[in-house]
């Protein structure tokens, strides 16, 4: 499973969604276009609950576009919870289009 980690994003949900689309979406699509990539985890920094809708839409819509490759979005700070979520996704061939929020 490949990983794409987005750095800092703006605090507001609309600005964060716009920044992700402007700076990371094409990188995600390029990774998914590689013939050896069957799964991609997009790692986002933690955010308030009002970011949930755009992040879930990203996971769901990019997974549909990339099928049969899997795409999931994981949000959280570096640590054991995020690492455990990424390990789970690496071994979960039926899981795609999900948004997982990690709490330490």
**Could you tell me the number of beta strands?**
4
- The number of helices is 4
Computed CA radius of gyration, to the nearest angstrom: 13 Å
Give the biggest beta sheet: 4 strands, parallel
The N- to C-terminal Cα distance equals 23 Å
Average pLDDT figure: 97
Strand content: 15-25%
Shape: globular
Low-confidence stretches: none
SSE ordering: EHHEHEHE
The side-by-side strand order for the widest beta sheet comes to: 1-2-3-4
- DSSP helix fraction: 40-55%
Q: Structural class from helices and strands?
A: alpha/beta
Structure description:
- The chain is α/β, with parallel strands linked by helices and 104 residues long.
- The protein has a four-stranded parallel beta sheet with strand order 1-2-3-4, sandwiched between helices.
- The model has no long low-confidence stretch (mean pLDDT 97).
- Helix content is 44%, strand content 18%.
- It contains four helices and four strands.
- The longest helix has 15 residues.
List the helices and strands and how they pair.
Blueprint: E1 2-5, H1 13-23, H2 25-33, E2 39-44, H3 52-66, E3 70-75, H4 80-90, E4 99-101
Parallel strand pairs: 1-2, 2-3, 3-4
Keyword list:
globular, 4 strands, 4 helices, 104 residues, alpha/beta
Task: Give a short overview.
The protein has helices spanning 13-23, 25-33, 52-66, 80-90; strands spanning 2-5, 39-44, 70-75, 99-101. It has 104 residues and is of the alpha/beta class.
């Amino acid at each position: 499973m490949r990983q794409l980690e987005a750095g800092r994003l703006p605090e507001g949900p609309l600005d964060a969604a716009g920044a992700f689309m402007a700076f990371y979406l094409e990188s995600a699509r390029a990774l998914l276009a590689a013939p050896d990539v069957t799964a991609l985890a997009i790692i986002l920094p933690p955010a308030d609950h009002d970011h949930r809708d755009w992040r879930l839409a990203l996971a769901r819509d990019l997974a549909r576009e990339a099928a049969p490759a899997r795409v999931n979005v994981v949000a959280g700070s570096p640590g054991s919870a995020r690492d455990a979520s990424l390990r789970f996704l690496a071994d979960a061939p039926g899981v795609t289009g999900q948004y997982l929020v990690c709490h330490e």
